[in-house]
Write a structure and sequence with these properties.
The chain is an all-alpha fold and 174 residues long. It has one domain. The protein has five helices and no strands. α2 crosses α4.
Length: 174
């Protein structure tokens, strides 16, 4: 057994020696080659036009939220019997959660993408259903009902699309 142990210990010493030499060689070559200083693409400043376009997309998205949130809050209040404050908070969670998760996806981070897509999908679907229901309550004809459902589906998609465009400009993915 002593001969086997001696052979293994010798092999281990040689392996350690080789590893130390390799690390020294890498450090020396890293010092010899200067690193290229390059500005990250995302560090570039936004142009005036990009700022204006992003602000316009977010302003229109905010206008869409101003239409959608009262309808969502009213429907949550009607369907669940929740207090007005709770209904408004839930409406904000639904519509703003949709926007924030889409902004997370626009940032191209690889973390929790499946969860973010699930939240975006669920919030958009709930917003579509509740907005459509709120709009249908005021329809008196078949055409009015169809238009109400169309507007109810359009509004959350409109809000999501506008906030997506603004986020893409901010993340420079045109």
């Amino acid at each position: 057994m002593n001969q086997v142990d001696a052979i293994l210990n010798g092999a281990q010493r040689e392996s350690d020696k080789w590893l130390r030499e390799t690390r020294k060689a890498r450090k020396a070559s890293d010092k010899a080659q200067p690193r290229k200083a390059r500005k990250a693409h995302s560090a570039r400043r936004l142009t005036q036009g990009e700022r204006i376009r992003a602000a316009a997309f977010f302003a229109l998205s905010g206008a869409g939220l101003a239409v959608s949130l009262p309808h969502l809050a009213g429907e949550v209040n009607t369907l669940t019997g929740a207090s007005a404050a709770a209904a408004w908070f839930l409406a904000i969670i639904i519509d703003c959660g949709m926007i924030v998760c889409k902004a997370h996806l626009s940032a191209q981070t690889s973390t929790n993408r499946a969860i973010a897509w699930a939240i975006v999908s669920a919030c958009t679907l709930v917003s579509m259903v509740l907005n459509s229901h709120a709009f249908v309550e005021h329809a008196s004809t078949t055409f009015g009902t169809c238009a109400a459902v169309g507007f109810g589906v359009f509004l959350p998609v409109f809000i999501l699309s506008l906030s997506y465009m603004g986020a893409e400009i901010l993340h420079r993915k045109r």
